[in-house]
Amino acid sequence: MEIKLDKIDGIGPQTLRKLRNANIWSTYDLILNIPKGYQDFFITKPSEMKHNAKITLKAKVVSQLKDNPYGKVFSTTFDIKVYDQVIHVIIFNRKYLSKQVREEQEIIIQGTYNLYRSQLLATEIKTKIDETSIKPIYRIKDVSDYLIHQAVKQIFDKEQVQIFEIIPKYLIEKYRLISRYDAYMKLHCPKDFSEIDQAIRRLKYEETFFLELKVVSDQSSLIPRKPKNYDISFVKSFIKTIPYELTHDQKQAVNDIYRDFKKDHAMFRLIQGDVGSGKTVVALIAIMAVISMGEQAVFMAPTTLLAEQQYHTYVQMAPHLRIALLTQKTPQKKKVIEDIKNHQYDLVVGTHALIEDVVKFSKLGLVVIDEQHKFGVDTRGQLIDKSHSKDVLYLTATPIPRTLAMMTFGKQNVSIIKEKPKQKEPIKTLYVDKDNLDLIYKKIDEEIAQGHHAYVVVPAITSNHVDDNIESTYELLKANVDAQIHMLHGKMTKQEQEASMQAFMDKPSLLLSTTMIEVGIDVQTATLMIIFSAEHFGLSQLHQLRGRIGRNDLSNTCYLISGKDDVERLTLLSKIDDGFELANYDLKLRGPGDFIGSDQSGFLKFNFIDILSDQKLIEIAQKDVFELLKQKDFQTNRKYQYLRNYIKESMKI
Ligand code: ADP
Ligand code: MG
Q1: Which of 611, 610, 612, 592 is nearest to 601 (CA)?
Q2: CA angle (133 as vertex; 127, 139 as ends), nearest 5
Q3: Which of 95, 405, 418, 633 is deepest in the core (most CB within 10 A)?
Q4: Rounded to the nearest whole angstrom, what is the distance from the C-alpha of residue 417 to the centroid of ligand 1?
Q5: Which residues are 485's β-sheet partners?
Q6: What pLDDT is attached to residue 599?
Q7: Does the pLDDT of residue 215 top 80, yes or no?
Q8: Which bound ligand lies closest to the C-alpha atom of 244?
Q9: What's the average model confidence in pLDDT over 539-548?
Q10: Beta-carbon count within 10 A of 606 CB
Q11: What is the pLDDT of residues 312-332, one digit of tens each?
């Protein structure tokens, strides 16, 4: 039963038109249009806690209040806890505050937020949380909140809307959630704040549940297959030939993979680890397992250069394996393809040339994809389709924030390699104002005179949007440094790019590049990284760029150049060397699009959950969904029909 809005008292033709402009057509639409906030205080959502933003929080005091009477101005400091996070508060000129507010008390607090220091400069504190009349704020253009509120009340009073329960009953009971109907009613007409909390708790679970239903049902981990019956002595005799001991994290990742092999469904695993953390050998140990049982494996890299490097590494590490290299440039390609089909090769390393229809395998038992985000979903899918067991191992150096990786892969399916085999001297990272370039020029010539290599990275090729680009910076460098300058960018042909890279590696010199160098280029003697217009880049991207240097025992420096007011953010890089921590800042500052590609980030827009602070909830819902999908009667029971339909619908997107 869905009722048109003109049946509701108080909604005339004019209001009707305005509501339709806001895409609200029925009573159900109106109910789903939830309040943006309540009354005169508007509690800031975690996702809106931006740097320098004025925010209002309902928070718990978690420390004693400390008066600081001796400074120029009297100040009081204390800590609050909100959204699972402790924030340090400073407020000026409130001599009596420490008598009014105690530890453990709930307060409403307003002020300016400093994200980097987790600090709130407070201007307003309310100790009485007024719960007598909570009025929702809707902010629908040209329609008063009062009118909406009256309409909503009437809809609930006269039962002019139907809101069905959509979460399985046993889960509602397990978490003592209120019904969907009650949740929307309480959100629109709350008697007190605890009702709003109850409603949000329920709707958060609902939102996470349906997100995970989509994510989990999309994973190959639900594809059944027999446990892999590999020959452990074959694998062990390979491990004995490795000239170093695996790090703890590498061993852990290998264990995770072997546990996956033993399961009765396909592996779907992400290995995350900075450049140089040693993912290559982990992948090779995984590959050994499938080869030991007479299957083939494939390794797909994002560029020809990387595929070639990988191929040579594997040939060197495992000379007894039959390994093929397949890229656009492979000579006698037809023959190689024929031999792959006839199982003359155990392992094929290549680029996206691998996905062409003519490339067929005799028995492909493992797909390894390096830098998975460099490939589209389709490309990955086409390669995986060639395998009979659908086992996939993704490798990435992008420090995707834990929550995001977990949401898209499942908590059990992510292995993280944090420690690096050779702990080198940290890279010195310095912020330089755009007016101080002389010191940069001098440094470039110094380093290159010592036989080292330098990178200069700019955000664009030409001057359409950005001052600092390949063209302008080339002129600037030519006029100011003695060093030989090579270039690398996307408007060059593949041949030009490779020739330029080769010339750069052959002699101490400078490479002026776009972010193309982000992935995989390995020049041991590179000691200098200079990034122009650093304000254009995310922190994790800057971290990855600086990972191009420091692959030696020399002293390495990264300069971040910016004329814009971005010092506070950029200097985080001189303090933090952990890619994951930096990634979390990006997630807060720039949203998830940075990590998973904007084409996929649409499904991460939420009404209720916040991907940073609701990590635990996401974990729980994921587990629930996983168990639900594995229930014997899930595919047959009528009561799950609507969930099966939902999955079918979401697979089409
Ligand atoms: P990435 O994770 O970027 O693919 P690689 O697998 O290329 O990293 O490893 C980087 C370097 O570290 C390689 O030269 C590799 O031989 C070396 N390496 C890997 N694991 C270890 C280890 N446990 N001890 C010492 N060196 C290692
Ligand atoms: Mg690698």
Answers
A1: 592
A2: 100
A3: 405
A4: 11
A5: 510
A6: 47
A7: no
A8: 1
A9: 89
A10: 15
A11: 999 999 999 999 999 988 999
